[in-house]
Amino acid sequence: MIADCIAAGGLLHVFGCGHSQILAEEILYRAGGLVPVNAMLELPLSLQEASKSTFFERLEGYAKVIFDSYQTSPGEVIIIISTSGRNAVPVEMAMAANERGLKVVSLTSLAYSQGVNSRHPSGKKLYELDDVVLNNGAILGDAAIEVAGVSYKVGPTSAVVGIAILWALVVEVVNILVERGVEPPIWLAANVPGSDDVVADYIQEYRHRIKHL
């Protein structure tokens, strides 16, 4: 789906809240990554005011405001990242994307999501609203390691596994495009000699479509 989207001149959108927003940032404007990636980044959902992001992630109606502030087209793909998949914003982002004709990929944990109730009035969770599930395998609560003398587990897995999944996905999309005879636009590292002109050309081409470029 992503290869079809990019081959047709579309964008790959990516969205997450809190620590999941870090994963969205990871594949935006990244050396060795695809150029046509639009990360939907919202300050109140970031960790700059960490505890507030929990409140905003649960805020009904907020997702549509975010979604409507970005350019999207039918047939494009959005990856929505939420390990629990239960909160209003990721659920409503999937609903908004479906209404606008985008293909929805969730990066979530089925074990975690199926172990909790939805916080959205529809009763839906993210994985129930997508076209494809990428399961990060996180356990309920995400933290995975028991340490003697500590009441709670430590060492969450969703971020490191999620980033590995996203980059494996990007590499596979690039392979598919090349097999089709399409040369995908790839960011060069800004600190590699000779890269400035290439990067500048991509920025000029995509700046009007990628909000945070």
Topology summary:
Blueprint: H1 2-7, E1 12-16, H2 19-26, E2 37-40, H3 50-57, H4 62-68, E3 77-81, H5 88-99, E4 103-108, H6 110-114, E5 132-135, E6 143-145, E7 154-156, H7 158-179, H8 196-206
Secondary-structure-derived class: alpha/beta
The end-to-end distance, rounded to whole angstroms, is 24 Å
Uncertain spans: none
* Anisotropy-based shape: globular
Q: Could you please say which CATH topology applies here?
A: Rossmann fold
* Sheet of most strands: 5 strands, parallel
CATH superfamily: Glucose-6-phosphate isomerase like protein, domain 1
Order of helices and strands: HEHEHHEHEHEEEHH
Mean pLDDT: 97
The overall number of domains is 1
- Estimate percent helicity: 25-40%
As a whole number of angstroms, the C-alpha radius of gyration is 18 Å
Explain the overall architecture.
The chain is α/β, with parallel strands linked by helices. It has a single domain, classed as Glucose-6-phosphate isomerase like protein, domain 1 (Rossmann fold, 3-Layer(aba) Sandwich), CATH 3.40.50.10490. The strands form two sheets. The chain has a five-stranded parallel β-sheet. Helix 2 packs parallel to helix 7. The protein starts with a helix and ends in a 7-residue tail after the last helix. The relative contact order is 0.18. The mean pLDDT is 97.
